[in-house]
Amino acid sequence: MPINEEGAAFKPLIVAFCCNWCSYAGADLAGSSRLNYPVNVKVIRVPCSCRVNPLFILRAFQRGADGVIMCGCHPGDCHYTSGNYFARRRMALLFSMLDYLGIERGRTRVEWVSAAEGAKFANTMNQFAETISALGECRRLEDIRCVESEI
Amino acid sequence: MHADERKEAETIIRASGVNVRKCMKCGKCSATCPNFDEMDIHPHRFVSMVEEGDIFALMQSKSLWRCLSCFACVERCPRGVEPANLIEAVRLEVIRPLAGNRLRPEAIPALLDEKIPQQLIVSAFRKYSK
Amino acid sequence: MKFSYYPGCTLKTRAAELDVAARQAAEALGVIMEELPEWQCCGAVYPIARDELATRLSAVRALDGAKRLKNPLLTLCSACHHVIKRVNNDMQTDDDMRAKVNSYMDLDDPYSGETKVVHYLEMLRDEIGFDKIRERVTQPMKGRRISAYYGCMLLRPSTVMRFDNPENPSILEDFIAALGAEPIRYPYRNECCGGYISIEARDVAREMSRKIMNSAVKRGADTIITACPVCLYNLNENGTGEVPVVYFTELLAESLGVKEPEGGLVHAR
Amino acid sequence: MQKIGVFVCWCGSNIAATVDVEAVAQASLSEPGVVFSTNYQYMCSEGGQSAIRNAIAEHGLTGIVVCACSPRMHEATFRKTAAVAGLNPYMVEIANIREQCSWIHRDKEEGTKKAIILARAAVAKLNRNVPLIAGESQVIKRALVIGGGIAGIQTALDVADAGYEVDIVEKTPTIGGKMAMLDKTFPTLDCAACILTPKMVDASAHEKISLFTYSEVESVSGFVGNFTVNIRKKARGVNSDLCTGCGVCIEKCPSKKAKSEFNQGLCNRSAIYIPFAQAIPNVPVIDRESCIKFQTGKCGVCEKVCTAKAIDYAQEDEIITRQYGAIVLATGFKPISLESYDEFQYNQCPDVITSLEFERICNAAGPTKGKVLRPSDHEPPKTVVFVQCVGSRATVECGKTYCSKICCMYTAKHAMLLREKYPDTEVYVFYIDVRTPGKSFDEFYRRAVEEYGVHYIKGMVGKVAEEDGRLIVQGSDLIADKQVIIEADMVVLAAAIEPDPTARSLGTMFTASMDTNDFFTEAHPKLRPVESPTAGIYLSGLCQGPKDIPDTVAQAGAAASKVIGLLSKDKLVGNPCVAACNEPLCNGCSTCELVCPYGAITYEEHLVVDHGVRETRRVSCVNEAICQGCGACTVTCPSGAMDLKGFTNLQIMAEVDAICR
Fold first, then answer.
1. Over its length of 130 residues, how does chain B's per-residue pLDDT go in tens digits?
2. C188–D465 C-beta distance less than 8 A
3. Nearest to D199 by CA among D263, D282, D284, D278
4. Residue A140 domain flag
5. D209-212 and D272-273 as β-strands: parallel, antiparallel, unpaired?
6. In this structure, what CATH number is given to the domain that contains residue C47?
7. pLDDT tens digits, C45-100
8. Buried b (16+ CB within 10 A) or exposed e, D273-288
9. Residue D485's closest chain B neighbor by CA?
10. D432·B72 Cβ contact <8 A
């Protein structure tokens, strides 16, 4: 496990965008089934995966997130019929651009989690956290002005 | 449970790759077994006894030498438990230590007839000796 | 059509008919069976335990040999097929096993299950096709009533073997029909014959073999065919002796007209 | 500047055990805008809610954050609380510190830290909330019920009795479903037909109910209160208005080799047929696959013999478009295919049958006129073996992981009926567990054992083999620790049940979510059991999960009451979290219109003031009644003019910032 300067074990900060109808409910089910996943995974609820603006993801990396995952309904099961298809295409382009900028592919992910898949949600988060732990901290897009202004 | 027995149980579960907790105790393995009547401990009890860690009794069992590895129990188990794999793992625990062998090379010639295929001797040897 | 061929130890000795007839028939059907230049006994039983490494190696050597020759691996004996197919499956699906075997074998190119394992019957069904075989038959077995005995090794566990429906197989019946004979189905064709138990408890094998043979005979079979030397031994030596038990390849060679008929049905009685 | 109150719930020990609620409340006080914070044992209780109301009044709060369970659970509750206290309900945000914090993290320090951050994110979002007012939409006072089995019929009757119009769409030629096939029903043993057929007649005669049999739902659009559905009426080949149901065509039809679906393939039917005598409507259907006229062009016997001139070979499928306020899914079930269970020889031996086939054999209107005879030789069986859990409770590929729930009871019923009719018949039941939770259920099963002498054997059957015309059943008796061999004449398999295969495509069409077994999921497994998570879609009967007839009828009534509740409203309060266009930024490019799945976006010429310049421009307009608030347009908009109320760019950015700080 990578160790940061203070000597503490590195715990990646992960932002998870979850659609209200499937994935957020899946995350709730993971909770009510008491399935463990890392504490630094923080979920933001959006109505649909297609509400996730690429700017939100850039912002997360800019503010120090180590990984961003977007979860939606399975293809064909979108509550709004087609939102997840838009999301899938947008993310394919965004992730490829982020890769070009040096945000490794492993730091971004799209996963379909239905309301019945609490176990899949927890497993996905565990795996994702593991992948990012191996990649280490992500400072590539960090906004230095933000950091300095806080000092 | 004796500490040695607990260790044996762990070894058996590891080597067999069987998750005994998946068993729902329906008995289809024992219903299916073509050699049921020859066994003192029946396939479904193998599963529950491993679960309970009752290994020494299994290691004494005649069933170890009567399971034919025909995989009928494995095929038909509705929950994918694989009882034959457990029996194999217990059998290995018996024959692996020195002097655990059931079949000795010296004994073979007397058992042969002129038609026995090599494959049969090899399989018996693999199952009964190490 | 070219295959690397793994005969196995018994086919070189007691079950030579199985092997010889298979080669003759393959030649007549235009299939090239190229015996692996080096092979060892497969071990006859699949090492079920996950901590058994050495007993898997000879199968991996055969598989790797075929891989280097870029051929699918053809098997004939049921036990060899069972062992090699399952070890191949381990190499494909069990990361831990694959790593251990490869580090032990130290191959130039690590083996991870690339070779396709094909049983001779699967070759007949999937590569040639029983319809084609029907056309090539010169001595159709008209009027013959033949039962197939599958045994365990080819069918189970079906999730790995993927050979045929494990409870109601039909590949041998289709084969029998292709030769012009009438296939006789009976319920115990996939039950165990007793296998290696006959070395220790012949009476057990006797009971099991008789149940199988009785069931086939009651339905009017005049011959039983099999692909396995142990099955053949048990049915012939421990069965009721009412009908002959022969290898399926013997019938094939015979009906393709590439085998002297007298060698066929009187075998091993 | 907002004046925010933060309310931290303990949820008994559910939250308080792993989150220091006091610390969360204290920490949130340092967040911008927060003027008040507190914690309470059960925020959702009356005490908790009144604490919220008091705090709003006392501190003049402009918004509240509740740190509690999932917003899917109690967001609506707290919005109502806020509204009562005079606060706009959309000035409420929930921080989910139960499902997504206390329940998944064991370490109290870590859990508390995370809860503080989640609260901070909710506060950050709330700082950018604005009051929202929900729009209203019309409710069309008609319901659609998909599926005409007992579930669909009961729901339709209950809704129609309340005075609303109901349409039933049934894919087969008659209503009645699986229940019509049954002989007797447990635990009272009254005959299924006697209790079902009057309901079928009621449904067809009800002035508020329209039946669309031999019809399927083709497509749907719209939303709760206002669905538009296209129904495909498949061509019967018979004009329903002219047909008198005399049955001469069926009698004279020369093609009589088709397997009767209603009799589970145990006997044949003609190409022109009605499924069973009491079918509703009593109008035949031509099965074009087996009709000689359709296959070869020659024949036409039915047309010749029909005095009513009702036969119409040229009839084509018809699409009917109807509007509905509510839709009920009642698509039912079927037994699983036993293709992968050849150890029981189902596909090889005609005397190995499924329980549903046994129902037909027992049924006085069935292929054997109610005499229990072997399909192979029409002889009465002397020994019958029942095998339970065939494909149920199985984790292997070909099975179902769940308990099918009805098999224990109907098997006891079958065993009992057999022993009653034929006291000489020996009856064995192989069971893993006998599960009889239900009123008078266990007593019923015990009667089978104690009074009727049915042999219950705890164990499973491993193999069935046919020898000399008998079925050799090899099973285990776990109590005796023995392998038993029973020579039987008939084997009856209690096959697992699964949702009807049409449910899958309907689920996609209606965006009604399904579980991994293709059962429809309910909005809440306990508290909203007859509603789909999609508004306006309700669930009735077995399509939601295995259940018997009493449970199905109860659920059908419950679904009906929910439908009535919806249809009784004149207007529905919509979701105010809809898209909105910032007109000065909009360049009228139409991209948003292209991605909108509801056609909610149109373009209009509006007077726009842009940097002091007044001009008329083509700008995007959102129809708030149609917009469902998915947000697809907001991301696709190249100029950033589109935003989603309640989930604005700034709100979500603020959450991101708060989480990453």
1. 678 888 999 999 999 999 999 999 999 999 999 999 999 999 999 999 999 999 999 999 999 999 999 999 999 999 999 999 999 999 999 999 877 888 888 888 888 888 899 889 889 888 888 8
2. yes
3. D278
4. yes
5. unpaired
6. 1.20.1050
7. 999 999 999 999 999 999 999 999 999 999 999 999 999 999 999 999 999 999 99
8. bbbbebbbbbbbbbbe
9. B31
10. no
Residue A10 contacts D where some CB pair is shorter than 8 Å: no
User: Are residue C115 and residue C198 in the same domain, yes or no?
Assistant: no
**Which ranges in D451-548 belong to alpha helices (H)?**
502-509
Q: Do chains A and B touch (3 or more CB pairs under 8 A)?
A: no
- CATH number of A94's domain: 3.40.50
> Which stretch of DSSP H or E encloses residue C216?
helix C202-218
Rg (CA), chain C: 18
- DSSP assigned state of A11: -
Place of tokens 């008609």: D142
C106 in reach of chain B (CB within 8 A): no
According to the model, what pLDDT value does residue A81 have?
78
In angstroms, the CA D226 to CA D133 distance is 21
Q: CA D381, CA D359: separation in Å to the nearest integer? A: 15
The ipTM value here is 0.80
Touching chains C and A? (3+ Cβ pairs < 8 A): no
CB-based contact D80:D58 (threshold 8 Å): no
Considering only the beta carbons, identify the residue of A35, A53, A116 that sits closest to D521: A116
Distance CA C55, CA B96 (A): 14
| B32 has a chain D CB within 8 A of its CB | yes
Interface test with D, best of B18, B20, B26 (most D CBs within 10 A): B26
In the DSSP assignment, the letter for residue D638 is T
Provide the shortest C-alpha distance from residue D49 to chain A (in Å): 23
Which tens digits make up the pLDDT trace of D627-644?
889 999 999 999 999 999
Tokens encoding A21: 């109808």
Look up the domain containing C191 and give its range. 138-263
Q: So what CATH class is B3-96? A: mainly alpha
Q: How far apart are CA D198 and CA D622, in angstroms?
A: 50
Which residues on D lie below 8 Å from C168 (Cβ)? 342, 345, 347-348
| Residue from the list B27, B37, B79 with its beta carbon closest to the beta carbon of D394 | B79
**What is the total count of domains within chain C?**
2
Q: Quote the minimal CA–CA distance from C230 to chain B in Å.
A: 6
Q: The pTM is what? A: 0.81
Domain for residue C126, yes or no?
Answer: no
Amino acid (1-letter code) at residue D157: L
Residues C87 and C198 in one domain: no
Q: How many CB atoms lie within 10 A of CB B13?
A: 18
Q: Which chains touch B (3 or more CB pairs under 8 A)?
A: C, D
Same domain, C196 and C231: yes
Residues of chain D in contact with residue C218, where contact means CB-CB under 8 angstroms, are 467-468
CA of C187 vs chain D CAs: smallest distance (Å) = 5
Q: Which of D337, D339, D341, D342 to mutate to test the interface with C (most CBs of C within 10 A)?
A: D342
